[in-house]
């Protein structure tokens, strides 16, 4: 079995952090925003993850590092060593690049780490756990981005300054990059639709929505979640998402 621990920490708390469990060997994800608005991630490994995060901060201050990350998510394990974390880093970078959900900032990894077959099996199990946990934390960096096909029916959600485009996808409903959300949120959304209110705030805090615009494709769990976030009020997605010809989602 592959045992480990996931820890999410904001950039602002790294310098004063003294957690012992963060001083072990592990892999980490640094989530940030590119200048062109695309969401990006740096994936790395370290024998002392906390020290490595502090090194990232120092490198940014001295100009050695150009990207600015807001949040770190780290994965440590009591049995990890240098060879294992190099293997993990390389595999996680490969998976993240294949998913095309984020711009991957990591340049080089160790691709030829010598491992026993049993070690590979344990690390692949560790990676499956990482996929589940990091997705649960709200980062779909290791999940394949939903892709439109020739048969995809595009749907539109408009109103209150909002103008969004998306399609039904395997995990729910995907809103496309450059979709625009409403310029206001009705007070009732904070009470009757608090889940959607919190979700919109989170998407803005995470940089998925910037200046009322989606900076990348984002998959919601359901059409109504997408339309509520976009319109700024509670919504029935089956009614508010329509084709270019005006056919409602529920009638498709």
From TrEMBL:
Residues 23-104 form the GIY-YIG domain. Pfam families: DUF4357, GIY-YIG. Transmembrane segments: none annotated. CDD domains: GIY-YIG_unchar_2. SUPFAM superfamilies: GIY-YIG endonuclease. This is GIY-YIG nuclease family protein. It comes from Hominisplanchenecus faecis.
């Amino acid at each position: 079995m592959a045992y480990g621990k996931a820890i999410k920490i904001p950039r602002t708390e790294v310098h004063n952090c003294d957690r012992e469990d963060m001083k072990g060997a592990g892999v980490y994800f640094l989530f940030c925003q590119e200048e062109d608005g695309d969401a990006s991630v740096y994936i790395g490994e370290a024998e002392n993850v906390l020290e490595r995060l502090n090194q990232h901060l120092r490198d940014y201050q001295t100009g050695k590092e150009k990207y600015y990350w807001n949040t770190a998510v780290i994965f440590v394990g009591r049995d990890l060593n240098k060879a294992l974390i190099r293997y993990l880093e390389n595999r996680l970078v490969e998976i993240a690049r294949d998913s095309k959900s984020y711009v991957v900032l990591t340049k080089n990894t160790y691709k030829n780490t010598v491992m026993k077959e049993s070690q590979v099996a344990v690390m692949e199990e560790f990676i499956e756990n990482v996929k589940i946990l990091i997705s649960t934390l709200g980062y779909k960096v290791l999940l394949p981005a939903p892709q439109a096909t020739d048969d995809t029916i595009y749907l539109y959600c408009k109103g209150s300054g909002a103008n969004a485009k998306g399609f039904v996808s395997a995990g729910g409903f995907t809103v496309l990059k450059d979709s625009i959300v409403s310029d206001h949120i009705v007070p009732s959304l904070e009470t009757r639709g608090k889940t959607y209110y919190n979700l919109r705030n989170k998407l803005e805090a995470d940089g998925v929505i910037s200046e009322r615009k989606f900076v990348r494709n984002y998959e919601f769990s359901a059409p109504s979640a997408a339309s509520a976030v976009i319109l700024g009020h509670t919504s029935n997605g089956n009614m508010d998402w329509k084709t270019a010809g005006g056919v409602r989602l529920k009638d498709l």
